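To assess whether the prediction recovers the assembly geometry, we first specified each molecular entity separately, as shown.
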Amino acid sequence: MKLLQPESLPEALAMLAEQPEAIPIAGGTDLLVVWPTRPAEHDRCYVDLSGVPELKGVRWTDGQLALGALATYWDVIRDARATRELPLLGRAARQVGAIQIQARGTWAGNIANASPAADGVPVLMAYDAVVVLDSAHGREAVPLSDFYQGYKRMRRRSDQLVVEIRIPLPRTPYRVQWFEKVGSRRAQAIAKVGLAVVRGEQGWRVVAASMAPTVRRCPAIERRLAGSTPLRSPDDLLPAIEQDVAPIDDIRSTAHYRRRVMARVLYYGLQAT
Amino acid sequence: MTDNQFRTPHSTFRTTFTLNGTPITLAVDPAERLLDTLRYRLGLTGTKEGCGEGECGACTVYLNGLPVVSCLVPIYQVRGARVETVESLDPATLEPLRRSGATQCGACTPGVVMTARWIDAHRELLHSHTVRELMAGNLCRCTGYDGIIDGIAAGLEGRP
Amino acid sequence: MQRLEGLAKLTGRERYVDDLPLEEGEFLWGATVRSPAPRGRITAVRFAPDVDWSQFTIVDHRDIPGPNFVALIERDQPVLAADCVRHVQEPVLLLAHPDRMSLRRAVAAVTIEVALEPPIFDFRAVPKLEQIQYGSDNVLKHLSITKGDVERALAAAPIVVEGTYETGAQEHVYLEPQGMLASVEGDVVVLRGSMQCPYYVLKALLAPLDRDEARLRVIQTPTGGGFGGKEEYPSTIALHAALLALKSGQPVKIIYDRGEDMAATTKRHPSLVRHRTGVTADGRLLAQDIAVVMDGGAYVTLSPVVLSRGIIHAAGPYACDHVRIDGRAMFTNAVPFGAFRGFGAPQTHFANERHMDRIAARLNLDPAELRRRNLLRDGQTTATGQVINDGTDRVAVLERALTLADYHAKRAAHPRFNRSESTRRRGIGLATFHHGAGFTGGGEVALASRLHVAGLPDGRVEVRSANIEMGQGTLTVFTLLASERLGLEPGDVVIAAADTARVPNSGPTVASRTSMVVGHMVEIACDALRIRLGLDATARGEAVRTAIRRWHRAHPNATLLAEGAYQRPPGIAWDDATYSGDAYGTYAWGAYVAEVEVDLRTYDTRVLDFVAVQEIGKVLHETLARGQVQGGVAQALGWALLEECRWQDGAMANAQLTNYIIPTSDDLPPIRVAFLENPYPFGAQGAKGLGELPMDGPAPAVLNAIAAATGADPCIIPLTQERLMEIVERGMRNAEFHGEAQ
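The predicted structure of the complete assembly is given in tokenized form:
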């Protein structure tokens, strides 16, 4: 194993520029799950971000919340202002694993792991979060809804590092916001269906997890909701769902279940608002 | 294939942290998990390995005051941190859990105890969380959880 | 009295096999290379050339000194596969190395090449000729029970109700994985490890290692859960560790990774049970025709006994004059199935209790009333013709559960709730059931169990038995029994480690026998100790201590031992040939009630309330007994709702705790427990066996509740959200299993 431990952001970026195969590690929860059973992972090069002070913290500025790359789920759960102004963050964070994982897992790690079942990504995407990528060659900001290009593929060059996630604060409060994760049990469950729904001055944001190769916005559903025809039953959502997502049968669930459940959870969730 | 593939653990990495209140400097293999360092290098076998995938909670320790699963903590991230294991707990505080039947086979117990005592020290969380939700990261196969939850409740209420 | 070892467990001081101090460099880690194929001839074993294999100890079947089999009921299961394999994950080769990670890499660097032959995975299907691998028809065991004339009674019955019920496999998930440490000390091979039955392990070591008992020693280390999963499987790991230790000349420790443990070791037998039941219009059972098929997997292991217990309990705790139960355990190329708490009875009770509710629905009867009309009264007989005459009011057990659960009021209130709610449905359901403790029929006699109670020089007594503590409370209960029998303080009683060098064979820690049967032997031994000391039957406390000390002063360096041996209770008669008579000395009786809320959006079932009432002879220790019930209920609810084994080529594809879902604390309500007592004269202090009973009731109770809540008729477990959705939406009675990933 080759281990690099930068002590500043410029140092970290220089390492990534030099060693494109190096893998950045924040909380390490996704990597270490396979550590005992995949010896090949031990032969790689890792960049340990835990000692980089610029990446720490949860920062409120005028108009936005900035989560540093090392900000954990627990950091946000304990942030009183986040609970008030961006409640979906805490709601999603509470359903990540259990407290032991919430204490270590990071929002940035969740984004960079690019799982279609990611727990943090849907609410970030619904809140129009922007991913800030830094590198030795400069910075860029990518809307999270544009970040994923395909299964486990994202708009990140190997020399780039996710350094911050910026969530804009709405000028007028959100009219609708809810998040639901359907898992096999109440806690410590990988999502079979994840849904984050927000309605604000920018319109509807409907984000689905575990329904496609990536977490993604659902533009057809958003258009349907913005339209004037009221929904009379969950089935009314099925055509839009067909357009937006492509669920599969896998070790956790079936496409049929996912599709039907997404329609019902969405329909009844909207009814309740 | 590289030549380092089949070496016995090379303890080339030095790390310093505080363990159960005492500063410690160790030579470790950077590939070790904190769990491995505690159990096999330091002989602190109170922390158990139930799954190695961060699901069961049997390996729970405190890292900078928060409960974490030590099977998912790389030893190289522990430098300068505060680590506390079940060995650091005062046995007298475990009396309510003893009476309530919180332990049967004992394999999950140290992890359960760590999380339970942490909840007891952070009661403000009970405004937003239930005890059952906070304990959901500690799997138990023997008790059905009632013995554990009852013991925690007794402790919170100041009952023996 | 608190759990004796409770503080040690709470503080982490209790040492399990992987906690035993071993100096680095003075032992080796051991690991297993396993078959990738479900059936075929091993054509080659290839070792990757870029590994320095000279660093490793390598063991294959040729290193086995004696015959290559793991002793159990039959000799069909090899220690290590020789020419052919019968299931994925079958052990072929063993490796040992000082470094665990190097060992893991090495396991991945060995390739077992297998010329595939046609496997069979569906235990319900009639095997094709080329899939026959056991006998002439792949039937590992066939048993049947006949009472009266079922065909005639069915033909005459006014109403006949049919049903087919399926249960899936279940993985034990003991929180301490399987582990074994082998060393050679002098001329003795010593095994230390996690196990339920030290003498099973000892017996298994004899032939393959070509050693007699004097050159073998098995010591149980504190065991972090068993549930049957450490009944027979440890014999295999013990042999593996011993072979590596003998070849390497060093102690060898094998600790299974969780994924390996789940994929490679035994699980609960899957089952398919068909019922055809004749009833009167007012709900009396006239005839029960039951067919039970179980998947035994690729080796016999304990399938004949699991099948036996399953069919004996299959007709439930009811009076019925005409019963036919036909049971078959089938060979498949799945990883072999084995002992799991309940041992066949949970499977058949699930089917029977779901079927009773189906009958109740057909007759428009309250399910509780149907049970009331049919529960065995004293003087009536079971399916095997056993006359039940124990004086337990089984209707009172049911009534107590209904009262505690507020059954009638809730049953009346739920329809109103359901009409007013758009996405939630509530229901309440029950199950009544029984469980015979101890070995079936003549089994306890065949075990010929015995134990010792020793008087120590300082006046204390030591209980020496092979029955182990795995969380169910053996250490505490034996201490309680001995101290109360002799009037001693608990501190005056010592429980010896289960070490075959020091304790006699008191039988395995299985079948809910430890407190009831073996505990009674502790009492008998205590009485024998009094006699040995020349004391009268009333001598207690200081008189006993003094007499022991006096004996030792008179016999320096001698051992004061009294024996307690199993005595068959009088009047028990079982006929193995006709499978009839008194299957067990006594039964515990249970009535469980579950209240659920089903979310019609996600088909998630939340158990709102659970009441568990049982009559168990005598509650030896309130906290321990309650803990056994709550733990068993939780484990059974997991089996019913959450725990699905996904199969790939007969092995578990979802072998991680992330993907094999057991209940967390947030998935269960408080489990409310009540006991009734009707002392059993031949159990310790009147106790009946308890450990497995709680596994029999929850699955049917919760499915009956879901049926009440949704109007659906689910007959299959695990009743996952996907399966319930299919059943409700298609109105089908049985959904396909999610299916094999081919």
